[in-house]
Amino acid sequence: MVVVLAIIVTITSIALLGQTSFNRSMVLTDIAYTLAFSIREAQSLGLSSRVFGGTQNTGYGVHFVRGVTNSYTLFADISPAASGNVQSASVCPGHSVGSGPEARPGDCIYNGASENVRSYALNRGFTILSFCGTQTSNGSMRCSNSASSLMLDSLSIVYLRPNTQSVVTGVRSGTRIPLSDATIRVASPDGAAERCVYVSKAGQVAVFQKGETSCP
């Protein structure tokens, strides 16, 4: 009887652990795809020229901040470029000022709460582990968890019509860093499982598991 009970307890424990691991993996995958959908939503809104706060032709984007591991922000790019901040084609393609039908406000980066459309929260202990991007000028990989010289304080992924391409920009100590892609890593509460959301400059948005090409 004791042996039978021990076997039953062992099998039950294995089954419960396996189910827990499966559930964790499913929830993590769902979170990664929700994040990817948020980026696609920004692309759709940016291409549709949706009015935000009375501003026409605004771009839309998704913003991540180092140290904020449980949320990210969908925003409308309506704030004008700061004085003296030249928006060249390499930084914010298609940006122009004025009041004509093709004028586009904003500067291809998040500028505060006045641009907030909505915030997305990660619940139940799941977190944004890091975000990274390849620096356009020299090919260096910069991440929110890198050493100081390659660190990113924040990351913005913006879309504005008529381009389906993404404008990916990192910020470090107030300096803007054009990036050719972005990778956002999300992790389970125990850190045992990870997924990556990869965004290319060409507009590709994909979800990968840890160890795959775009999820190192």
In short:
Helix content is 22%, strand content 31%. It has one helix spanning 2-48; strands at residues 59-65, 71-77, 116-121, 127-134, 141-143, 154-159, 167-172, 175-179, 181-187, 194-200, 205-209.
Shape summary = globular
If you compute it from the alpha carbons, what radius of gyration comes out, rounded to the nearest whole angstrom? Answer: 21 Å
Query: In order across it, which strands form the biggest sheet?
Result: 3-2-1-6-7-8
| CATH topology (level 3) name | minor pseudopilin epsh fold
What portion of the residues fall into strands of 2 or more residues? 25-35%
CATH class division: Alpha Beta
State the CATH superfamily name. Answer: minor pseudopilin epsh domain
Report the oligomer: single chain
Second rung of CATH, namely the architecture: 3-Layer(bab) Sandwich
The total of beta strands comes to 11
Decide which structural class fits the backbone. alpha+beta
Would you identify the regions where 5 or more consecutive residues have pLDDT less than 50? Answer: 11-19, 83-89
Mean pLDDT equals 82
| Number of contiguous helices | 1
Question: How many domains?
Answer: 1
Order of helices and strands: HEEEEEEEEEEE
| Largest β sheet strand count, sense and barrel closure | 6 strands, antiparallel
Q: Kindly state the percentage of residues in helix.
A: 10-25%
Question: How far apart, in Å, are the first and last alpha carbons?
Answer: 50 Å
What would your notes on this structure say?
This protein is α+β, with helices and mostly antiparallel strands. It has one domain: 3-Layer(bab) Sandwich (minor pseudopilin epsh fold), CATH 3.55.40. Helix content is 22%, strand content 31%. The chain has one helix at residues 2-48, and strands spanning 59-65, 71-77, 116-121, 127-134, 141-143, 154-159, 167-172, 175-179, 181-187, 194-200, 205-209. It has a six-stranded antiparallel sheet with strand order 3-2-1-6-7-8, covered by helices on one side. It has a five-stranded antiparallel sheet with strand order 5-4-9-10-11, covered by helices on one side. The longest helix has 47 residues, at 2-48.
